[in-house]
Backbone:
């Protein structure tokens, strides 16, 4: 297992958001983490990349490394990349600079080649390579964020709600790229609110509710499961 | 009175008594008497600054300017215009207070560093004017200022000591009085969380101006007393050096406390008479100590002495348990509680709320739901006066509230809670609720306390009355915020994601709380993600997506609406 | 008139470097460093030490003082700014004032330095050497100041706009979270930013040293004029800070020429208030304020 999260309990200040969640991702898999707002999906990713929540119990192991003892920057060196909520681009720098900085943690030997391949994958941002990141559209920004993460040659790419605020065609494009990446060998851990879309592309999925795993299993089976609807919309069938 | 001030209130008489004893015992030691006199005079200005910094969280690097204004007023009037000292003193203080108001208004426009720079510039400009203005002596200043006379007593030497310290005592007690009542609660609320204070009904702008005026007046008084004792005034005296000295006194003693200011003033005052040969070393040490205090012991010397006072309970007899007779609210209005028409809010190119319109009926519980980023909180903020809308109107009981400050809307009878439970952390649970009652009603502190206790009792929170908000477990924070929001009997309640982070048992309690509030006739608008909760208590559900209202109806209708399902889950393949 | 402008640009160069340094520290740490002017003074004193104790020529002293400034900046960040960074805005302001006190009074305690200003040897010829131009007598040192200022600005530009690490520093200042997620060590970039800022001050203190003398208590006035420059030009814009600093120098000298002594300064400070009230973002910046 590339990423092995066991019994994770984490939260902010006095608040506990995750109450013992276990999730794993194998090499080359696309795993989706779904669930309504407040379920703890983003907190899970942030705990893995050591970005914020206080971890009060459980373990996170990535490629043999204990991530609980690792800084965010070091995690990047191990190959665990997180494209966070809000994309976190360097808004004042150009597209090209953003991408080049993505390789900060690597040894820079293949930087030019990696840059070209990112531009090939995302021709939309290749066209805008000297534009300031701030001026990009939502979809372009998302592509840039993913591209920047790819420059670090990740083993695992964690994406936090990549579809937020984007038009359907752009979302489709991004998801197909995510699919390609997976087939090319990068594992992806995808947090999404748009459940059905994520299930279309994922191998496996987890559904979180109130900080605990409510459902899990193969994506194809879950998409037919009525219980998802109940979890998202409340109502008699859920419990 | 606020618990945090109890220690202060106890310490002041002790400190003053101590000084008094020293004054009697050492009255033959001229050096001591002189240093102590100056300490007392500076203490007055320090108290003002301490209040400003600690109570309202505003920094002013211009206190010396007010000192100078008061001092020069007295100096000029008693020399060139031959006034008697006491009327000149009054003029000095009033003039300084006036400039305090001016700076207060300017201060509203800036925060933090910019405010520091603006007030510093003011200080420097004043010094420049003092240097140049021939009327008040220019670079030479004014000499031969006559001693003040109180009847047969000439205020110099030992009488000056008593003059300074009696004034300081009066100022200290007056300041404490100020901090005790309604104003004190308001200041404390602003210091803890300015936004929450506004929403709880505190007029933050007005309070800040009052704080600046008071601090300015006290600095002016200090200056006016100073010239009488020292007999001369020069333009370099009210310079940045004095401002920094005052800052040092306050930081050392402890920001926000009156006793701290007195301690700080004494400390610095006495240090200044010892070790003249250590001049520069002393200043370097000041710098080091200031940094150390700010970083390691923000409460200053007073905070260190006070120690664990923070977690101790307040004194005062336990109030009798009031069984609430839940009288339903009666509203004398033909208008609907809330009418939103065509409201649009943009952030740059992003449209957060897109032409939303709806109206609420009295006594109903309506939920506002929708996926992340749908614009729900933005809409809420607009309704409570946080941020302006680009188009459209919001009417609360018929009154258009566009552009109103949050505290004005709160005073209309609107309560609001926040997604992250913004409590006044350094106040107790009871004080949190009292602050709201005092800000929104005209009752006195005693009645406010009663009302607060009653509200807490209604929600079953009375056992937490004396707990400091920062020590509360998360679930209780939410409920205390709810109590604070309903204590002044609002008839419209806006609740933002109250269930986030609660466990099952807490959600059930929340459900009961909300239903009980509705039972009193309060109109409730709720943002929530917990669908079970929403479906079980709502009379009506409105759904927002990408800023637009996409569905509006009863819970049953909404649950089965395919548009809503698509909004949340995506399109089923 | 030309004389005054040249004098203004000369002293303004010092202000410009202080202002630019303020900008860099602000970007990196969100702190406004009230002690900035003192570092200019201390820089000049470093150079003096190199010249009088180590007996090297003034050019080597310039390099030495800049290097010492860099190291001092690292120490300043580590010992004072970093522990204070979790404090409130008011607390941070007070902390830098504390640092100001330490430097202002502390530097006078160093045996060689003392509390009165000293002359620093000119960079070429004698201190008062000047040439005539357009009816004014222009000191050679002023030319050196302009040249060296341009050099410093060019180096800064090249570093921050053209080098990988310089861009990484800007990225970390722009978005610390994004930087961490990209593997950039934000603590390190902050420290280096502060060090660069202080080094700039030391450099500035040395190049204007021969004209304005080094040492003494002028640091506070310089700091404030540096602020005024930064505010007038626009705190958020590096170009604005430099231009603002130069502008303040010119205004100061022109006012000194026209009005009697002592009035120039308050008028300069009034510039600050006026700018804050009328156009708080300054001339060159488009975003208002330092609030996040």
Residues:
């Amino acid at each position: 297992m590339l990423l092995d999260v066991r019994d994770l309990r984490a939260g902010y200040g006095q608040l506990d958001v995750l109450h013992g969640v276990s999730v794993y991702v194998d090499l080359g898999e696309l795993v989706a983490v779904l669930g309504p707002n407040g379920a703890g999906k983003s907190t899970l990713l942030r705990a893995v990349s050591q970005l914020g929540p206080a971890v009060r119990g459980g373990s996170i192991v990535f490629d043999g490394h204990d991530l609980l003892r690792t800084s965010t920057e070091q995690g990047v060196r191990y190959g665990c990349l997180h494209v966070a909520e809000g994309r976190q681009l360097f808004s004042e720098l150009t597209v090209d600079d953003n991408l080049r900085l993505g390789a900060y943690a690597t040894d820079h030997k293949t930087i030019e080649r990696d840059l070209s391949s990112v531009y090939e994958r995302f021709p939309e941002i290749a066209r805008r390579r000297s534009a300031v990141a701030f001026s990009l559209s939502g979809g372009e920004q998302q592509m840039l964020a993913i591209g920047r993460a790819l420059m670090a040659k990740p083993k695992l790419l964690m994406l936090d709600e990549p579809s937020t605020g984007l038009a359907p065609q752009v979302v489709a494009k991004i998801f197909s790229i995510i699919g390609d990446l997976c087939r090319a060998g990068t594992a992806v851990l995808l947090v999404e609110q748009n459940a059905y879309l994520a299930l279309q592309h994922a191998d496996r999925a987890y559904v979180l509710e109130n900080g605990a795993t409510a459902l899990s299993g193969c994506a194809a089976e879950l998409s037919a499961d009525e219980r998802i609807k109940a979890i998202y919309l409340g109502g008699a069938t859920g419990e | 009175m606020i618990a945090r001030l109890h220690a202060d209130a106890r310490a002041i008489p002790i400190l003053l008594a101590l000084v008094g004893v020293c004054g009697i015992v050492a009255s033959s030691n001229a050096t001591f008497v002189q240093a102590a006199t100056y300490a007392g005079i500076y203490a007055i200005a320090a108290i003002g600054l301490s209040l400003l910094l600690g109570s309202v969280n505003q920094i002013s690097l211009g206190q010396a300017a007010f000192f100078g204004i008061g001092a020069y007023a007295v100096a000029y009037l008693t020399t060139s215009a031959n006034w008697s000292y006491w009327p000149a003193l009054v003029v000095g203080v009033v003039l300084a207070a006036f400039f305090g108001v001016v700076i207060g208004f300017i201060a509203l426009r800036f925060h933090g560093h910019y405010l520091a720079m603006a007030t510093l510039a003011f200080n420097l400009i004043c010094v420049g004017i003092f240097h140049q203005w021939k009327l008040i002596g220019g670079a030479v200043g004014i000499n031969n200022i006559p001693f003040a006379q109180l009847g047969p007593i000439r205020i110099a030497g030992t009488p000056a000591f008593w003059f300074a310290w009696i004034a300081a005592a009066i100022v200290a007690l007056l300041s404490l009085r100020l901090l005790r009542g309604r104003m004190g609660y308001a200041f404390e609320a602003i210091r803890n969380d300015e936004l929450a204070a506004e929403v709880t009904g505190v007029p933050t702008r007005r309070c800040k101006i009052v704080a600046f005026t008071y601090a300015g007046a006290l600095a002016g008084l200090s200056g006016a007393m100073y010239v009488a004792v020292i007999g001369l005034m020069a333009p370099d005296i009210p310079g940045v050096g004095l401002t920094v000295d005052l800052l040092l006194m306050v930081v050392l003693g402890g920001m926000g406390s009156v006793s701290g200011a007195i301690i700080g003033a004494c400390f610095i005052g006495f240090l200044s008479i010892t070790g003249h040969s250590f001049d520069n070393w002393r200043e370097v040490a000041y710098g080091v100590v200031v940094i150390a205090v700010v970083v390691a012991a923000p409460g200053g010397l007073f905070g260190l002495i006070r120690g664990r006072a923070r977690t101790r309970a307040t004194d005062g007899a336990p109030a009798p348990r009031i069984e609430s007779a839940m009288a339903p609210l009666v509203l004398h209005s033909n208008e609907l509680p809330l009418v939103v028409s065509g409201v649009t809010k943009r952030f740059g190119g992003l449209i957060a709320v897109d032409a939303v319109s709806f109206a609420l009926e009295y006594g109903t519980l309506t939920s506002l739901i929708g996926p992340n980023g749908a614009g729900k909180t933005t809409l809420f903020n607009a309704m409570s006066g946080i941020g302006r809308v680009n188009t459209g109107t919001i009417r609360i009981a018929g009154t258009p509230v566009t552009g109103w400050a949050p505290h004005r809307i709160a005073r209309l009878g609107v309560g609001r809670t926040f997604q992250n439970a913004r409590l006044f952390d350094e106040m107790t649970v009871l004080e949190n609720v009292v602050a709201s009652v005092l800000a929104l009603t005209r009752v006195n502190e005693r009645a406010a306390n009663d009302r607060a206790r009653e509200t807490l009792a209604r929600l079953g929170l009375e056992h937490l009355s004396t707990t400091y908000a920062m020590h509360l477990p998360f679930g209780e924070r939410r409920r205390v915020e709810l109590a604070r929001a309903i204590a002044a009997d609002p008839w419209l309640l806006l609740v933002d994601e109250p269930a986030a982070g609660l466990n099952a048992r807490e959600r059930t309690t929340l459900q009961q709380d909300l239903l009980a509030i509705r039972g009193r006739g309060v109109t409730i608008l709720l943002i929530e993600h917990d669908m079970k909760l929403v479906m079980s208590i709502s009379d009506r559900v409105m759904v927002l997506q990408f800023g637009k209202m996409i569905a509006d109806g009863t819970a049953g209708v909404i649950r089965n609406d395919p548009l809503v399902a698509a909004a949340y889950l995506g399109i089923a393949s | 008139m030309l004389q005054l402008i040249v004098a203004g640009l000369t002293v303004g160069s010092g202000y410009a470097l202080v202002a630019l340094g303020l900008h860099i520290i602000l970007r990196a740490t969100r702190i406004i460093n009230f002690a900035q002017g003192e570092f200019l003074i201390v820089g000049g004193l470093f150079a003096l030490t190199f010249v009088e104790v180590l007996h090297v020529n003034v050019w080597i002293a310039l390099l030495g003082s800049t290097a010492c400034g860099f190291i001092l900046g690292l120490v300043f960040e580590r010992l004072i700014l970093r522990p204070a960074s979790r404090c409130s805005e008011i607390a941070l302001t007070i902390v830098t004032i504390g640092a100001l006190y330490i430097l202002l009074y502390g530097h006078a305690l160093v045996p060689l330095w003392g509390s009165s200003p000293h002359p620093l040897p000119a960079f070429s010829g004698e201190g008062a050497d000047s040439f005539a131009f357009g009816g004014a007598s222009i000191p050679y040192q002023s030319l050196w100041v302009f040249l060296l200022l341009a050099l410093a600005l060019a180096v800064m530009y090249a570093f921050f706009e053209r080098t990988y690490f310089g861009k990484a520093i800007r990225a970390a200042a722009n978005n610390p979270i994004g930087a961490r997620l990209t593997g950039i060590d934000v603590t390190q970039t902050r420290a280096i930013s502060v060090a660069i800022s202080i080094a700039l001050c030391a450099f500035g203190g040395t190049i204007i040293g021969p004209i304005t003398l080094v040492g003494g208590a002028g640091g506070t006035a310089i700091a404030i004029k540096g602020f005024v420059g930064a505010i007038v030009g626009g705190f958020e814009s590096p170009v604005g800070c430099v231009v603002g600093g130069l502008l303040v120098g010119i205004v100061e000298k022109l006012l000194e020429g026209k009005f009697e002594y002592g009035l120039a300064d308050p008028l300069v400070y009034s510039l600050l208030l006026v700018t804050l009230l009328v156009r708080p973002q300054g001339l060159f910046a488009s975003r208002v304020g330092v609030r996040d």
Observations:
- Chain A touches chain C at residues 49, 51, 71-73, 76-77, 81-84, 87-93, 97-98, 100-102, 104-105, 148-149, 152 (CB under 8 Å).
- The radius of gyration of chain A is 17 Å.
- Chain A has a mean pLDDT of 88.
